[in-house]
Amino acid sequence: MKTTCQQILKTQWLKTIVITTAIAASNHAALSAPTLPSIPSGTYNITSYGASTGSANNATAIQNAINAASAAGGGTVQVPSGIFLSGPITMKSKVCLNLASGSTMKMLAYGTWPGSTAFIEYGGLSNVKISGSGTIDGQGSAWWTAYNANNAVARPSVLDGNNCAIVQVTGIKIINAPNVHISFHYACNQITVDHVTLSSPSTSPNTDGCDCEGANFLFDSDNISCGDDNIAIVGGHVHSQYYVVQNCTFGAGHGMTIGSYVSDQVDHLTVQNCTFNGTSNGIRIKSSRGRGSVVQYLTYTGLTMNNVSSPINITCWYGGDPSNPSTAASAAVTSTTPNFKHIAISNVTATGASYSEIYGLPEQHISDVTLNNVKLAESGSKTFEIYFADGIVFSNGSTVTGGTYPVTIWDATVSGISTHTY
Questions:
Q1: 344-364 burial, b if ≥16 CB within 10 A, otherwise e?
Q2: Residue 258: CA atoms inside 13 Å, Cβ hemisphere, count?
Q3: In 3D, which of 142, 169, 173 has the Cα closest to residue 155?
Q4: What angle do CA 349, 402, 277 make, to 5 degrees?
Q5: At 12, which helix (H) or strand (E)?
Q6: Closest Cα partner for 283 from 269, 293, 268, 262?
Q7: Quick check: 179 pLDDT over 90?
Q8: Which of 20, 75, 91, 285 is 20 to 30 A from 315 in CA distance terms?
Q9: Cα–Cα distance, 395 to 176 (Å, whole number)
């Protein structure tokens, strides 16, 4: 019997979910593999609609192919081998854009791009697929230079969708993004990003790998190097929940991130069997007063980090930690005060690191963080700072080595490891 891609992903999803003590008390009823797009048969080659490797802008031809597929009830728009320059295009529901081996869709260069519209948009659509082994080249270098000179310069993302559902991005490579590589914002639902490569230089400004918001996301076997967050989950407009990130490799970038806007809550995230090489942060959860809320039921397991500056970076002071926790001012608790809790970290090894932190607020402590078989080799003078936190438990041989004081605490309850008070 033939095994479909959807069956494989669903099997991986169900097999590799790890239910930890911190997660067990939560409600798992909504957890299931994202639905994959249903794309009708029929192929529409962009060259049949006037696209050419010699054209200065193939946007009209590609859009006509997409429109023809949509008019027929859906189908696959084929990009053949070759380099095709294009301005922005808009996907349609029940349409797949497939980039064949050897194909490159290249965004028009800075200075000729029409406004700041994203390259490929799928806002408000359902059953959309972008697939293949080809490449999308954002030609971002000139955009980065312009933005560094003037931060008011608006830059397009490469793939962008608000309020979309049942979307899959699979197999493709996106390089040199002018801004964010892939965006899913507002109430996006049933999203799969698998076997993709996202690559922009570490110096490229704000080139997040994927920004996402909504529910039921799966990231599987992706390779992401960029100039900002590798993956960023936010809850600034809707409640974001039920995410799995597995078998991924993170290079340059700011890490596997939640925040900083989480005022509509983020919960039920599992990150497993991932590798971080030279990433600024590994596990990164960030927010601050005025943009926070509840972030909870998070599981991180089976992670290997090499030369990651901060393997664990959990802070409620995004924008700048107080240098001295003993003088940190308290404030009233509001609906937008960060409240991080029920976080399970297990089977994590980090070498070549500088420091880690769990830094809560005087008025709202971070709570219930378990570190099970976590081994951190760090070199900072205070290698693991734990401030304003309760129920932080090191177990099963967890160690922090290096530095003058491996674990420094203030107004915190920590067990299972030796600590030094600030």
A1: bbbbbebeebbbbbbbbbbeb
A2: 39
A3: 142
A4: 35
A5: helix 5-16
A6: 269
A7: yes
A8: 20
A9: 42
pTM exceeds 0.85 for this model: yes
CB neighbours of residue 319 within 10 Å: 11
Q: How far is CA 348 from CA 20, 294, 390, in A?
A: 15, 25, 21
- What pLDDT digit, counting tens, does each position of 192-231 carry? 999 999 999 999 999 999 999 999 999 999 999 999 999 9
Which residues does residue 302 pair with via DSSP β-bridges, in sequence order?
Answer: none
Measured distance CA(136)–CA(195) in Å, rounded: 15
d(CA 260, CA 266): 11
Sequential DSSP letters for 55-120: -S--HHHHHHHHHHHHHTT-EEEEE-SEEEEE--EE--TTEEEEE-TTEEEEEPPTTTS-TT--SE
pLDDT range class, residue 19, cuts 50, 70, 90: very low
The sign one gets for the Cα dihedral 269, 272, 276, 282 is: positive
Length of the chain: 422
Calpha distance 348→375 (Å, rounded): 6
Strand partners, 350: 305, 376
CA 304-306-307 angle, to 5 degrees, is: 150
Q: What is the pLDDT of residues 312-352, one digit of tens each?
A: 999 999 999 999 999 999 999 999 999 999 999 999 999 99
Closest CA to 88 of 53, 45, 123: 123
CB 378 within 8 A of CB 305: no
Q: Is 399 exposed, middle or buried (0-12, 13-18, 19+ CB in 10 A)?
A: middle
CB 36 within 8 A of CB 166: yes
- Dihedral (CA of 347, 235, 297, 220) sign: negative
Q: What is d(CA 215, CA 195) in angstroms, rounded to the nearest whole number? A: 20
